[in-house]
Amino acid sequence: MTGFNKPYPLYELPYSRDLMHMLRQQVDEDPARVAFRFRRGRQLEQRTISEFVGDIDALGTWLFREGLAGKHLAIIAPNSYPWLVAYFAIVGSGSIVVPIDKDLSTEEQARLLSHSESSFSFVADRLAEGVAGAAPQVSVRRFSELEALITQGKAALKAGERVFLDCPQDVDKLATIVYTSGTTGGSKGVMLTQANLMADINQGCRYFDPEGASLSVLPYHHMFGLVVALMMLVNWRSTVFINTGLKYLMPDFQESKPVTTMLVPLHIQTFHKMVMETAKKEGKYKKLRFAMKLSLALYSLGIDVRAKLLKDVRKPFGGQLRYILVGGAALDPYYEREFRAWGIDLIVAYGATECSPGIACGRNHYHRDGAVGLPVLDCEVRAAADGEIMIKGPIVMQGYWHDDAATAEALRDGWYASGDIGYVDKDGFVYLTGRKKNLIILSDGENVSPEALESRLGLIEGVSEVLVYQSGDEIVAEIFPEEARMGDQAWFDAQIARFNEKLPPAQRIRKVVLRDVEFPKNSSRKILRHEARKEKNHA
Fold first, then answer.
1. Which of 52, 132, 414, 464 could form an S-S bond across to 140 if both were Cys, CB 3.0 to 4.6 Å?
2. Whether the predicted pLDDT of 2 surpasses 50
């Protein structure tokens, strides 16, 4: 271990000008290094970094031959190796790539294709017919065709065609339009350049080292999943196992045996529940709790025997897992302590699509419970007078596509107004306390953060999901229970009464509403607050 949760020198990596430069440097260093592993059907496959770049070069050459270079090209498909080839080939050809969530309705996908002015899209086979019908102005190619297109491109490269290889990379030009998840309203098209992305990759990688093999889980159409949870791992020369769906997640842990993975809080809560319920079923809960207490006590003295002491807990995750970088939503510090006892450090990060996306991150051996990390290099983070977190630096977007009003509201004198409420401590760690738009403002002027309450309510036995909101002058907790407590109003009323005893009067929950279906969520597993409230208003 480097120190014991104290500052230490930043990591060093070669500087990359643009995405293709980042990859080509690695080919020059070690062309045979395995960059990716993944499932294709029942087979496990792998690709070296030189094979990856070769496929990108071939598809990029095909894009030029088809007259698509420089245009707006979309990708609508689940995570896969070909998805990554398509993304890098599009950006490398000087085109603008538009990643679109595969789980959106066909109508919404068509709307985003139109809004982004996309003329072409690579689409998952099962979605291709629907997208083609809903967006007839867009030329659609199925993902199953990519292999043949790459073959065509390789033939052209062999014949001496160099138009993609010699394509100049203007890093300040628009490279990608990424639509925000829209958890509190309509999605907006964030305009990012390669300069934005490379600032985040080059500087973010100096804070966190995956220290070995990694597992890529989060969706690539979101910037956290693509830039932080994929590109930064590639930049670190980590062998990345690509998870292609939640049903393969636990088998992929066993197969890839990752040292590092990157997840959202819902994954953390689910894994914690899985471990605890398994221990209870096997009659080992008290033994587990004792081992965790001992593990943390020794660790606090600088004696790290966590991996050995809690090896049975770590087995479902491949046995080698040491770090989980967590982002995308608030995480209760309780989970940081719980996982730490197992020998798995939760490194919390903070980001926004508008910031490419990484704004702050904890370090392998320097992080604080409850904080969302230290601002990445060359990035300024401050709290405005009203507590809103403001960000300035090369990671900040150009603006919102075709939305000057929203751009003017978000970008103020070079600062991005995040909409998050929080503060920065004396050591530079950033803390978040809620969302400005979600603040509950009661008649007496008291401001209450629903996220802070939700984080603690989620720890109550029987709570699977929870949303806190204002109704009149009351605070309401709407709960989707675990199966064993479904419809048990008396249980939750009693739990909330006990919960309220620890709160100041203004923050107390006055009403508990139970749901019988999950809350609507985006593909990053964040609850869509506006959709949930719309359901309630229409009920």
1. 132
2. no
